[in-house]
Amino acid sequence: MKILMLSMICVIYTFDLPGIQQKTYSEGQQIPVLINEMTSESTQLPYDYYDLDICKPDSTENQNQNIGSMILGTLTQQSKYQIFMNYDIIDEILCVKNFTLTEQNNLKWFIDHDYRVNMLIDELPILSSNYLNNTIIGVPLGIRNINQYSFYNHYNFKIEIYNTSKSDINQTFSINSITVDFQSKCMDSVEIDSGINCPINQIMNITYSVKYLMTNSSNRWSAYLNIVSDSDQQWISISITFTVSLLLTALIAWFIRFTIRRDVLKFEMLPQEESDGLIDQMGWKQISRDVFRPPSGILFLSVLIGTGIQFTIMTISIFFLSSIGFLYSAHTGHLATVVIVVYVFTGSLNGYYSSKFYKYFKGEYWLLCTLGSNLAFPIMALFIFGIENIALMFEESSSGLDFKSGITFIALQLGIQTPLNLIGSFIGFKIESPKNPCKYGQIAQEITQQPFYLDYFYSCLIGGLICFISVGLEISQIMQLIWKNSYYEFFVSLFFTAILLIIISAEVSILTVYLLLQNQNHRWWWKAFFVPFTSGVYLFIYSIQYYLDSLQFTRFSTILYYFGTMYMASLCLGLICGTVGFLASHIFVKKIYSMIKLD
């Protein structure tokens, strides 16, 4: 495990992780300015900025060097902007542009759909203000006033810098943030703030100015952590989330302690003669010969458990790295790189636990188990994302996965994850399976009529809702981050909320299993998994409601992309909660049956 973690860290640092390390520049040194793609909340379809043929440099080769940006299809290209450290610039002409009729029509469409231009200066995203005076990432492309369209052709960059020098000789500076004021300005307009909007059918100069502002703060991300306009509301949401989660945890833990352990404690306090009679009265003791009987569908269950363990470790790792400041939501490519690397390297855990449980259930088709743990989820993900990619290609969006990115993803899957998965599977099949406290007989005991609340529908309905409620408010914030291009800063709370979700999923599953055993129902395996798994179903239902209330997607490709992505997210949440519930219930059942004397 230590070797695996070290290898993962080395691979993460091998890729370019932009914006994290603070860079220093000497006075007059040129600062790299890169153009990202244009994005919009209303369409969720990114486009290449240079499709508008605005101040296009000689070379527009994609500058992305990290694998996450390649998989996401994120474009980062060179620009003609020339900015030098601590040198102010006033109304520098970048180029002269005369939009053709076709370009004007394209530009109108982008303006109508509220597209923003995204740029990176020193690998930091630029910030601006929208018409509500809220800070946003990127700069609006233009504005429409009745029937007149205007293009924002003048950018006024305000760059906050920090003096990193220890002396007045050879001073060096680092950049903390970049904000942009924008203006539509005709060639004969002199005053930038005159309120004159230049129509797009006019010849115009594309200009920019640069103003440096000295700051005493050395925090490179301070401005980006403060762009959340409703931070007070988010803190209230976080407080409510923790309160609800802690109350649910305390309530379920209390029931487990004072109800479940009561039977065993009574048994331990009575003399041998009386305790034998008491054990016979325990509902869960009477099915000791069947409680460890393997369930049906052991191959499918083993693959689900292995995949769930992989996603659980991956999610906790990502949230932890985000909580300590290693990851920032503004750098989606960086975030995606770490997610992919962690996913690939945890493939060995998937193979190990899938094969371990399959052997524990005395399964015979070990090759199918190995292939299932290695390929089941990637094939399904490729199918769904493949359909989304075809839709994006028809839209001519820049986020469509190109051939090179596809080959990179397949190489990671077959070249790294598959060997690791095979190694994990081999070890899992070789290790001796743990022994159960009691053996099961050849003939299963008949299950008596069960209370209505133990029916699959009702138990999953209630159990899944309890799990989802504990993280519902945090999920709403994450939806804002993903689908409204906002910024999320509360990763510490998200990390601890994930821990609470794991605890609640375990407790809900244990409680369900205990009620099943008390009613002499030995078929607990799948229900221990499916009850907390239903939280993923609630997430997908919530995504439908969120789409109807908060999103205005009208294009079929965007709707397909949204629901395909939310389906995969719901599946991942369900797998995590279901796996945690299953593992906790398995430990619980083995524990209570090992604490009493069985014939």
UniProtKB/TrEMBL annotation:
Coiled-coil features, chain-numbered ranges: none
User: Which positions, given as ranges, span the membrane?
Assistant: 235-256, 298-328, 334-353, 365-387, 407-431, 452-471, 491-517, 529-548, 560-589
One Pfam family named in its UniProt record: EMP70
Among the record's GO biological process terms, what is one? protein localization to membrane
Q: Name one GO cellular component term.
A: membrane
Membrane topology according to the record: Multi-pass membrane protein
Keywords of this entry: Membrane, Signal, Transmembrane, Transmembrane helix
Q: Which PANTHER family match?
A: TRANSMEMBRANE 9 SUPERFAMILY MEMBER 2, TRANSMEMBRANE 9 SUPERFAMILY PROTEIN
Protein's UniProt name: Transmembrane 9 superfamily member
Q: Which organism is it from?
A: Paramecium pentaurelia
